[in-house]
Amino acid sequence: MSNSHHLTRREMPQLLRAGALLLLCFLATAAPEAGAATRAEVRSAALTLDTTEDVYDLSAKVDLSLPDDARKGIEAGLTLRLAYQIELYRVRRYMPDAAVAELEQVNELSYHALSQRYLVRNLNTGEQQDFGSLQAALEALGDLRGLPVIDADLVEKGPEYQARLRAIIDLSTTPDALKWLLFWSDDWSATSDWYSWPLRP
Amino acid sequence: MAAPSLSRALSAAVIGVGGLLWLSAILFMAQTAQNSEQFSRLHPWILMINVAGLVVLVALLGTKLTQLVRDWRGHVIGSRLKARMVWIFGVLATLPILLVYFFAVQFLNKGIDSWFNLEIRKSLDDALVLSRSALETRMREHLTDTQLVADELMIGGGPMPGLLESLRRQVGAIELVVAAESGRVITVSKGLSAEVVPDEVPGEVLLQLRQGRPFVSLEPQPEGGYLVRTAVPLGEPTPGSERLVLQAVYPVAERLGALADTVQAAYQQFGEKDYLRRPLKASFILTLTVVLLLSLLAAWYGAIFTAQKLVQPIQDLVKGTRAVAEGDLDTRLPLTSHDEMGFLVHSFNDMTKRLRRAREDQLRAQQAAETERANLAVILARLSTGVVSLEPDLAVRTANRAAGAILGEDLESSVGRRFDELGQGDGLLQQFVEACRARIAAGDVEWREQLAFQSGAGRRVIMCACTPLPGEGEAPGGYVLVFDEITGMLQAQREAAWGEVARRLAHEIKNPLTPIRLSAERMRLKLMPSMNEKDAQLLDRGTETIVQQVEAMKEMVNAFSEYARAPRFEMQSLNPNKLVTEVTDLYRAQVAGRGLSLTVSLDPALTALVADQGRLRQLLHNLLTNAVEALEGQPAGEIRVATHLGSHDGAEVAEITVEDNGPGFQRDLLGQVFDPYVTTKARGTGLGLAIVRKIIEEHGGYVEADNRAGGGAWVRIGLPLTETTRSQAARREPRRPEARRERA
Questions:
Q1: Option in B269, B279, B285 nearest A174 (CB)
Q2: Which CATH architecture has domain B569-740?
C-alpha cells in the first residue's frame, strides 16, 4: 500500500515533466541550440604546407568543455561524439564561392570502466588513444595536429582561398537505438561558430 | 447536390489519411523502444505528427463541443438527446482508458525500475572489480618482469640488442623499448605480434617515470583485447647523461581479454541504460500520454460523431413533422440507413407523399367544383328564369339576377338572409315568399304550380317549381325554386286566341249580315204597301231595328276584323306634337258640344318620331273616344292630353298621356283593361284599349294605365323615337321581363 502510494507520488513529477516536454516539443523541435554548459570554441586554426608530403595540414586549437551531467553520462557509458567540419573555398567575386575541399573528422570519446581509461577513437582512421583522465582526453581531442586537408596541387597560386572550421559535439549511446532518449534528457549538444581564415598559397 | 457529396468525400478522405498517419505514428512510436536506428531519427517527427494530430483533434472537438453547447442553449431539436449520448459514450470510453493508463504508468515505472535494480548494479560492479583485480594481478606480474629485465640489462652492461631480444623472449613481452627520458628511442626489441604497437614511449609514461614511479597500465585495443604497458627507469640517473627508461608491452591472454571485454561491454551498456532510465520513463509515459490523449479525444470525437449520426434522423423526423404540421407536404427526409430508423424515415416519406397526393386530389376536386360552380353561376346569370336556392333553414343560398328582376327586388344582395323574411308589405316578393313558404312548411317540397299574384300594377302570373336538394339522410339539403313570369305569355296566348276569334267572327258573321239587311229591307219594301197601318208600323220598326242592329253588328265585326288584321306598317318620320294637335282638333267641337273641356300640353323638345301615322292616329282616336265616353254625363268633365320627351331603359321615348276625371277603371278589372272585350261601358266593343296595346306593341313601345288619385283615369303610351331604339328595345325585351311589365 505504502509502496503504491510512494510510486504515485513519484509519478506526479514525471507526469508533469511529460506535459512539460510536450510543450517543449511545440516550441523547440529537433537540434536544440548550444546548451548552457556544453561549449566548443575554435581558438586558432591554420593550414600549413607540408613540403615533404606536398599536402596542406590543419592545425587547430579547440576549447571543449562539458557540464558535470555530461561528464557523468560519459562515465556511465555514454559516448561523446566530436566532429570537425573543415571546408575550403575559392573566393570568387561575382559568383558564389567554389568549394575546393570539404571534410569531416569524427572522433568518439568513451570511458573504459575496466581499465579506468578514457578512449579517444578517430572514426576516420580507426586509431585509438587512451588517457588516464577526461580532461587529458578532451585536450587531446581539442588539439588538432597535422590533419591533411588537401593536396597542394589542388590549391592554385593566385586566387584567394577561404578556409573555415567548426566543431560539433553531441552524445550518442552504444546501441544507437537509445540515442533518441537523449533528445529528451540533454542539452549537451553544441556546435561552435565557424572559424574562418584566409589561405594564400 | 454535387457540392455536399464532394465535401463529404473530401472530409472522409482527410479523416482516413489523418487516421492512418496517426495510427502509423503511434505504431512507430511504440517501435522506437526497439533496436532500430531509423526510429531514433524519426522519433521527434513521429512525436510531432502525434502532437499535430492531438492539436487537430482538440480543435475539432472544441468546435463540435461549442456547437453542441450552442445548440443546447438555443434549444435546438435533438441537442439534449445528443448531449446525453455524447456524455454517456464519452464517459464509457474515458473510464477504461484512464484505468488502463493508470495501470500502464504504474507498470512502466515498476517495470523499468525493476530492470535497474540494485542487485544487478552491484553484481555488475563486482564483476568489474573481479575482472579488474584479475588483470591487475597480471599487470603487477608484468611490472615485476619488466623490473627484472631492467635489472638484467643493468647487470649485462646496458641495453644490448641481443640481450634485449633474449630477455623479451624470456618474459614473454611483445615489445621492449629502451628510450631516453626525453622520449628518444635507443633500442627496440619487437615480437611478431607487436607490429601494430608504435615503438615510442608516450609522454604520460615518461611523466610518471620522471616523478620516480614505475608505470603500468591496461590498454584496451581498438579491435578487442588488451595490452599491458609497463615502464621502469633503467639504472640510476647519472649526472651529465640522460636517464634511460625501459618500456615493456605484454599481451593479455586472449581468453582473459575476451572475458574482460564482455564484462566491460555489459557494464557500459547497463550504465548507459541506467543513466537513461529517467528519460526512458519520461519518454514511455509521454508516448503513453499522447496515445491516451489521442484515444480519449478520438473517443469523444467519435462519441459526438456517433451521437450526431444517431440523432440526425430523429432531428430530421422532428423537423419533417413540424414542416408537415405547417402544411409543407413536399418534405422528404434523407434515407441514411436501412435499419429501424431508416424504416421510420421511409414510412414518414411515404406518409407525406400520400398526404400530398390526397391534398392534390382534393385541390383538383375543389377546382373542378369551383369551375362547375362558376359555369353554373354564368348559366344562372344568363337565364331569364329566376332561380333561388335555399338552405334547409330557408336562408337564401344563391339567387340569380333574373329572380330579382321577376320579383322586383335585388335578391342577389339578400344571399344569407332568411327567405321568409324577405319583402315587405303586400308586394309581389312578399306574396311569392309567402306562397312558397306555406307550401314548404306544409311539407310539400316538390311541386310545380302556376301562382297568380295581385301587384299594385295588376295581376302577375308566375310559374314556379320547387325541388329539394339532396342532403344527408332523409332531410333535404335545401331547396331550389325555379320560376318564370308567364303573365306576358298568357297575355300573348290570350291575344292569339282573341285574334283567332276576331278573324272567325269577321268571316262567319260578316257574310250573313248583308243578306239579313237586304232581306229585311226587301221585306219592308214588298210588304209595307199591302199592310194596314198598324202592321206597317210594326214592320217598319222591326225592319228598322234589324237594319240598325245589322249595321251595329257590321261595325263590331269590322272592329274585330281590324283587331285581327295583320299589321301593315308604313313607318315614317312625323311630328308627334303636330299629330296630337290634329287629332285633338277633330274632337274640340264634340267636346265643347258635351260641355267638356280639352287641354293639350305639348313638349316642344319632342320634334320627331318614326311611326305608322295612320295607326298612331287610330290609337289617339281610341284613347280620346274612351275618355269622351267615360265623361258622358259627367259635369265639368275634363280631358288632358300631354306629350313629353322621356326616357325608358336608357332610350329616348315619346310619351303621350291622356287623362280624364271620369269614374276611372273598376278596380278588379284594372289588370285586364287591355284585354279584348273587357269594358265598363254600356256600349262598346271592348276592343279600344286592346287595339291601343296591339299598336303600341307593334311599335315596340309600352302602355300603362291606372286610376288617378283624385278620381278619373290616365293612360300613358311610350314610343321609341327611332327605328334603331325600337329594334334595341325589341331585342332587349326577352331578356328583360320587367320591360314587358305593362301596368295595364
A1: B269
A2: 2-Layer Sandwich (3.30)
**CATH domain B383-485 topology:** Beta-Lactamase (3.30.450)
Strand A128-131 versus strand B175-180 pairing type: unpaired
Q: Judge whether residue B735 has pLDDT over 60.
A: no
pLDDT, tens digit (0-9, with 9 covering 90-100), for B489-533? 887 888 788 778 777 777 778 788 888 889 888 888 888 888 888
**Start-to-end CA span in chain A (Å):** 77
- pLDDT digits over B163-201, tens only? 888 888 888 888 889 888 888 888 888 887 655 556 778
CA nearest B261 in A: which residue? Answer: A114
- Name residue A184's amino acid: W
Indicate the domain borders of chain A. Answer: 37-199
Give the residue from B369, B235, B317, B290 showing the smallest Cα distance to B101: B290
| Chosen from A178, A188, A189 to mutate, greatest number of chain B CBs within 10 A | A178
Residues of A in contact with B279 (CB under 8 A): 181-182, 184-185
Residue B52, chain A, CB below 8 Å: the answer is: no
Query: Rounded to an integer, what distance in angstroms lies between the CA atom of residue B496 and that of residue B490?
Result: 10
Does residue B98 have a pLDDT over 80?
Answer: yes
Q: What is the ipTM of this complex?
A: 0.72
Chain A residues in contact with B110 by the CB 8 A cut-off are 7
Contact by Cβ (8 Å): B146, B232: yes
Helix (H) or strand (E) holding A83: strand A79-90
User: Are the beta carbons of B222 and A173 separated by less than 8 Å?
Assistant: no
- Closest residue in A to B196 (Cα) is A127
Tell me if B169 sits within 8 A of B243, measured CB to CB.
Answer: no
Write the pLDDT tens digit of every residue in B49-93: 778 888 888 998 899 889 889 988 988 888 888 889 889 988 998
C-alpha cell at A139: 585536450
> Among partner residues B132, B204, B268, which is closest to A174 by beta-carbon distance?
B268
Asked if the Cβ–Cβ distance from B218 to A7 is below 8 Å, we say no
pLDDT at A2: 37
- Per CATH, the homologous superfamily of domain B140-272 is PAS domain (3.30.450.20)
Determine whether the interchain pair B106/A119 forms a contact, defined as Cβ–Cβ distance below 8 Å.
Answer: no
Length of chain B: 744
**Dist. CA B270–CA B372, nearest whole Å:** 106
- The dihedral built from the CA positions of residue B219, B222, B226 and B228, taken in this order, carries a sign that is negative
Phi then psi for A150, rounded to 5 degrees? Answer: -150, 145
Within 8 A of B218 by CB-CB distance, chain A residues are 114-115, 117
CA neighbor of B694 nearest in space, from B714, B664, B674, B709:
B674
